[in-house]
Amino acid sequence: MxxxxxxxxxxxxxxxxxxxxxxxxxxxxxxxxxxxxxWTLVSGAAELVxxxxxxxxxxxxxxxxxxxxxxxxxxxxxxxxxxxxxxxxPGRRAIAYGRLPLQVPLxxxxxxxxxxAR
Length: 118
What we know:
Membrane protein; mainly alpha
């Protein structure tokens, strides 16, 4: 997978944090201080900054490493979603549980982009 695709994914999800923040608010771990909306907006902004860094060849290596860190940092939100949706319909549970292992290939992808940066 390419750096361009990684930047595109991060840009898309970053924008979604601002356009439709509600679903993201709902998975912010309750143990975090402050409002879920603040965490949603900060994480969306972080995704946009990291996307810009990945997109630019001069900052790609650092940006991709930041992307790997960001993918790891949002894992607790996926855990929160899985916990909250454990009694949901089978389809919703599949989505929630499916997100958990998805973080691994995202981190690996970001690390590969970092290694391949010029």
